[in-house]
Each structure stands twice: as C-alpha cells, then as structure tokens.
Amino acid sequence: MNVEQTSKISPKTSLFTALIIHCMVEIPFFIFPVILLLVEADIFPSIGELSWIGLGSIGTIGTLAMALPSPFFGWLADRYRRGVMMTLSLLIAIIGSLLIGLWGDSFLIVLIGMILLGTALAVYHPPGLSWVSTAYEDPETKSYSKNYVKILALHGIGGSLGASLGPLSVYFFIDSLNSWRDIYLLWSIPLILVMIGFWIFTGRKEPKNVFPSKITLETSQLKTNQMKSNINNQKYILYTIFFFIIAMSLTRGMISFILSPFLSEEKGMIIAKAALLIGVSTFVGSIGQVLGGIISDKYGETTLLSATALIQVFILFAIFNSTSSSILLLFYILLGVTNALFWPSINSLVARNSKHRGRAFGYVMLSANFIAALGPFLDGILKVIDPNRYLLIFGFSCLFSLIAFLALVYLAIKLQKEKIT
Hints:
Layout: H1 11-26, H2 36-43, H3 51-67, H4 70-77, H5 82-103, H6 107-135, H7 148-173, H8 181-201, H9 214-226, H10 231-265, H11 271-285, H12 287-299, H13 301-321, H14 325-341, H15 343-352, H16 357-385, H17 391-418
C-alpha cells in the first residue's frame, strides 16, 4: 500500500536539499566516461582494442547497478523514511569514490567502485523524486502545484549539474594531480560534508510514515472507484513512456560513454579539452530542464517528448560530421539541452498516472538505466568491429532516437483521438 507521509519540512527546503544531493551523487559516476583513455592506459596497458570490451564492461555493470535495484528502492520509498535513504545514497557514493581513489589501480577495484557509485544513484532516485513530488502535492485533494513540471525540472537540474561538474573537474584538476584517481578522492570531501549537513539539518527531521485514517481510506477508495474508467488510459500512457525511455536510453548510453574518446581520436582534442567541452555542454544544457518544464506546461508533454527525440537525430548527425571546434561546442550544448529536456515531462507523466509513486519512479530508473547499461557494451563491440571509426555507434544511436520519436507520435495521436490530453 502506498503510504504518503506528512512532512514538517517546507516544500522549498525539500526541493533545495534534493537538488543538492542529486547533484552530488551524480558527480563521481560521470567522471569515469571522461577519463576512459587514462583508465585504459593504467589498467589495460597492452591488449589493444580488446581493452574496449573491459572498459565497456565496467560502464555496463556500473549502470546495471544503477538500474536493477531501483524498483526495490522505489518500494522502500513508499514505506519508509526517504531522508534516511537519501543519506544512505551519499554514504555509498563516498565509499565508492574512496575505493577508486585509494586503490583503483586494477580492473576489479574500479569495477567494484563503479558498482557502488551506480548503486548510490539507484538508492537516491526513487525517494528523491518522491520526496520532491510529494512536497508540492496537496495531501487532501491530491492536486498539484500549477508549476509542478517546472518544480520537477528544477530538481532535474541537480542531476545535470552533477553530470557536468564531474567532467569539468577533470579539466581543471587532471594536470595538477598525480593520478586520475585523485579526482575521486577530491570529490569524497564535499560528499562527506553534504551527507553530514543534510542529515543534521533536514533528513533526520522527516517524520515516520503514518497509516491514513479510516476516513482517508474511504475517501481514497471513493476516488479510486471514480477513476476506474481512466485506469486503462493511464496504463497505456505508462507503457508507451517506458518504451520511449528504452529507446532514448540506448542512444544516451551509447553516446555518453564514447564522447571523450570520440573527441580525442576523431577530432584530435586532448583529454582535458574534451572534458571541458563535455562539462560545459552538460552544464549549459541543464537549462533544458527548465525549458522542458515551460514547454510542457504550454504545449503538453507528448509534444515535447516527440520533438526532442527527432531533434536529437539531427544533432548527432551534425556532431559526427563537424570539423569545426566552435560548431562542435554548439551542437554538444544542444545535445546537453535535449538530454535534459525530456526528463521533467517523463517524471510528470509518471507521477500523474501512477498510484504507487515510489515504485513507479523505481521502474522508470530501472528502464532507463538497465537499457543505458547496454550502451557501453555495444560501444565496445562496435569499436572492435570498426576500430578506426565511430560511424556504427552514431548510426545505431540515431536509429534508436527515431524509434522513440515514432512511439511518441503514435501516443499523441491516440491521446488526441480519445480526448484525454
């Protein structure tokens, strides 16, 4: 049974703290793809292109660690204190960062560290999203704030900032540190401070879940009976959204993993400059979260989602064929925007069409990250098949984006016919 809690923590505090934690747990996970070539030289010094299978395996297993436990943590988020789970996510990220930073000179240690960093994200996302979405929902009427999608977008900015700060830290510190492993040690310090600060000032103040009264249960049952006619439509929306997530996650998983080596090997950039470009594009692209909220509120979620998938195809084509650094930067920024653009709409549709919100967000993260986990492994296989080019990787990524676009077009047509938009 989904048990909502009444929290004495203000909505603004809930949003701010979740944004900060979201940012911090993302940072160490997104350092690894930027330093692939450095890791390869350190732990795979003499096996040539086959090292990509090892690197891809680390990326895939780390992402699976983010994906597979998500429904379980979503189930917990519906029943137990979410502040405790959010604190735990920071603790796991700290352990993973310290493990790689102190002993990450072997394949096994880096693999275990990435598993922990992925698990930290799995622990955070369901309770974090539930924490924010519940804070801006009226517990009696179940009505939402008029800026609901924008609020979810602000929370999403935290993730985008984390995904950008990881690469940016590589650019600023890689030349002044003794090893790429020291970057993980560096980030463990603010992670520890945020974990302690959140628990002392916010997390421990969250009240325990309480079972609703008989009146609330009767009212809830009445509302459930009144909404039975919409259940099939809600399920159809969720199924289509999950299919969209699967297709887009394949693109995201494949492209994000090879951005740094692609820029280094195909565009001639040094690793630090590639890290800067990726970090800046992701940082600026975080405005896509806010734009996504604004556009969704005005034109509808399905319109935004389908447009995002189609636009991404043209952006990937331009990146692959561009020879100018300035044009590359422009399209990488646009790629960062599109990667951030659709998440507020996804989260809004899931929140509005699901009864057990924690579990629903858990399944969202399972779908997104389980499929994205296949990306690095597919990259490794395609690089072995075609070691001198990235054409196959970009070609398959564009195909998956087109499939996502067609799925949302079909959903939009169906919703319009049934007049439920």
